[in-house]
């Protein structure tokens, strides 16, 4: 049986995004994905990749995302003239396009997500000051390999943190999606950029945990492994909490 997504032409969405996206704008667009999908709570299946970020741009944790929403709103206007696209699908595709534009892996996105008509609950995104124990708990609540004995929760948390390799956080070339993030985390003493700290406290919290360091080492040595694992984790992220069209 064909899925509802079979009726969509994904290239129309991709081309619409490409018309408005630049490398300079890529990090902000990718951040939109994390802030929309990152509200997912596996305990009650609330939040997730549902486009609700359009109602949440004024929240402190979403500061600066209005610019990225404005960029995608322009893309949506053009795409909707050809075929209707949900915000959830658009943001998921746009994040994948941002990664690819900056030299990262190509990520195939399943289409057919439905949009929420209301904002998600507050307080669902991990705070930038969390220590590594709290980070693991936060990611576990979002369904990222909730069996600690498999070490998967740590792996997915670390690989998704690698998204910070693009943007203005100081991890190498801000417009290049590569494994520089992990290489910088291994530098000692802790590096600075123009006298300012690099990254967020949560980035460096990863270096205080042996399991996380194991994965940081792996990705610093093997960019292809980072790309492959990021592709898988991103796909899981953008499917988290999604409701799908059935017809």
TrEMBL record:
<comment type="similarity">
    <text>Belongs to the peroxidase family. Ascorbate peroxidase subfamily.</text>
</comment>
<keyword id="KW-0575">Peroxidase</keyword>
<keyword id="KW-0630">Potassium</keyword>
<dbReference type="InterPro" id="IPR002207">
    <property type="entry name" value="Peroxidase_I"/>
</dbReference>
<dbReference type="GO" id="GO:0016688">
    <property type="term" value="F:L-ascorbate peroxidase activity"/>
</dbReference>
<dbReference type="Pfam" id="PF00141">
    <property type="entry name" value="peroxidase"/>
</dbReference>
<keyword id="KW-0376">Hydrogen peroxide</keyword>
<keyword id="KW-0106">Calcium</keyword>
<dbReference type="GO" id="GO:0046872">
    <property type="term" value="F:metal ion binding"/>
</dbReference>
<keyword id="KW-0408">Iron</keyword>
<dbReference type="GO" id="GO:0034599">
    <property type="term" value="P:cellular response to oxidative stress"/>
</dbReference>
<dbReference type="InterPro" id="IPR044831">
    <property type="entry name" value="Ccp1-like"/>
</dbReference>
<dbReference type="InterPro" id="IPR019793">
    <property type="entry name" value="Peroxidases_heam-ligand_BS"/>
</dbReference>
<keyword id="KW-0479">Metal-binding</keyword>
<dbReference type="InterPro" id="IPR002016">
    <property type="entry name" value="Haem_peroxidase"/>
</dbReference>
<keyword id="KW-0560">Oxidoreductase</keyword>
<keyword id="KW-0349">Heme</keyword>
<feature type="domain" description="Plant heme peroxidase family profile">
    <location>
        <begin position="26"/>
        <end position="247"/>
    </location>
</feature>
<protein>
    <recommendedName>
        <fullName>L-ascorbate peroxidase</fullName>
        <ecNumber>1.11.1.11</ecNumber>
    </recommendedName>
</protein>
<dbReference type="GO" id="GO:0042744">
    <property type="term" value="P:hydrogen peroxide catabolic process"/>
</dbReference>
<dbReference type="InterPro" id="IPR019794">
    <property type="entry name" value="Peroxidases_AS"/>
</dbReference>
<dbReference type="GO" id="GO:0020037">
    <property type="term" value="F:heme binding"/>
</dbReference>
<dbReference type="InterPro" id="IPR010255">
    <property type="entry name" value="Haem_peroxidase_sf"/>
</dbReference>
């Amino acid at each position: 049986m064909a899925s509802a997504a079979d009726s969509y032409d994904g290239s129309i969405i991709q081309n619409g995004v490409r018309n408005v996206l630049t490398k300079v704008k890529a990090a902000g667009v990718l951040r939109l994905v994390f802030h929309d999908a990152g509200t997912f709570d596996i305990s009650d299946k609330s939040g997730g990749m549902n486009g609700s970020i359009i109602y949440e741009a004024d929240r402190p944790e979403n500061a600066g995302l209005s610019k990225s929403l404005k960029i995608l709103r322009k893309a949506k206007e053009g795409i909707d003239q050809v075929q209707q696209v949900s915000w959830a699908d658009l943001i998921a595709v746009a994040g994948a396009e941002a990664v690819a534009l900056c030299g990262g892996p190509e990520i195939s996105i399943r289409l057919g997500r439905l949009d929420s008509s209301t904002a998600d609950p507050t307080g669902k995104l991990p705070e930038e000051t969390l220590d590594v124990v709290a980070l693991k708990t936060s990611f576990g609540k979002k369904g990222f390999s909730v069996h600690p004995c498999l070490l998967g929760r740590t792996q997915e948390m670390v690989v998704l943190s690698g998204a910070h390799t693009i943007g203005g956080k100081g991890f190498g070339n801000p417009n290049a999606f590569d494994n520089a993030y992990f290489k910088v985390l291994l530098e000692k003493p802790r590096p600075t950029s123009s006298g300012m700290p690099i990254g967020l406290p949560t980035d460096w919290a990863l270096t205080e945990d042996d399991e996380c360091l194991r994965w940081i080492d792996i990705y610093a040595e093997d960019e292809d492994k980072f790309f492959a694992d990021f592709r898988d984790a991103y796909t899981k992220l953008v499917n988290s909490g999604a409701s799908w069209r059935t017809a």
